[in-house]
Amino acid sequence: MSDVGALLLDLETHLATNVSEESIARARRDFSYLGHAKIPFLVPDSVKKAVADEVNRLLEVGSVRRDVSFAETDHSPRRMRNVRRKEIVEFGTVIPGVYNSARMLQSLGQIAGEPVHPCPYEPEQFVITCLEKDGDTHGWHWDDYSFAVVWVIETPPIADGGFVQCVPGTVWNKADPQINRTLTRHPIYSVELFSGDLYLMRTDTTLHRVYPVVNGTRKIINMGYASTRNLTMELSHETMDGLWADPETLEVSR
Ligand SMILES: O=C(O)CCC(=O)C(=O)O
Ligand SMILES: [Fe+2]
């Protein structure tokens, strides 16, 4: 069996035998009223390490620096370095395998309370993000698809930022996003994260951002997933297409 095959077997065995119904139920409860849930218990250390090694390697071979903002999210800042799906699939093996694991999708579906599907729009399936310069941030936004699983590879101590803030139960009007209005009308939850953490978020109805980092590096891989509703609806992809555009077509601050 290939190394990747052995790792995927580790993942499936772990999900089948080492994940208690109680931890799934707790995550499901959190997810339903907070719009997010920490789920580090879903993945064995062997797979976390392999994904982290692959993320670190891919950041060395094919990343693009961004400093952009979009009218669709009131020009919230996006300052970061990314490796896109295209390069991840070309040079990586573990991440695409984990993303498509049927057993993983099933567990995510139990926590979400509805089926979770691979994203039909390939560029939004997974992306690596590195925040490394002072002030780097993935500013306030919603995602196009319903779910995201974020794997935290490395993060600075909380005093140096890099934590996630989110506002569940909110909707994205791309023509008039009203981010400040949304922030003042709803409670904001702030989530401290550690290396090795994973969280699931309801990203189409949870406004979210990463607090700017200073003095440190924050590396994650975001895996985006679709709800059943997403599969039949018309979805546009302006902010994500802009974010992951080829550098020569990159528009800085529309
Ligand atoms: O880095 C994070 O924790 C969130 C990333 C995110 O929101 C995104 O990639 O759309
Ligand atoms: Fe997001």
From TrEMBL:
GO molecular function: metal ion binding; oxidoreductase activity
Domain Fe2OG dioxygenase: 122-227
Domain of life: Bacteria
Keyword flag Metal-binding: yes
InterPro entries reported in the protein's UniProt record: BesD/HalB-like, Oxoglu/Fe-dep_dioxygenase_dom
Alphabetical keyword list: Iron, Metal-binding, Oxidoreductase
Protein family according to the UniProt entry: Belongs to the iron/ascorbate-dependent oxidoreductase family.
Name the UniProt record assigns to this protein: Fe2OG dioxygenase domain-containing protein
High-level lineage: Bacteria, Bacillati, Actinomycetota, Actinomycetes, Streptosporangiales
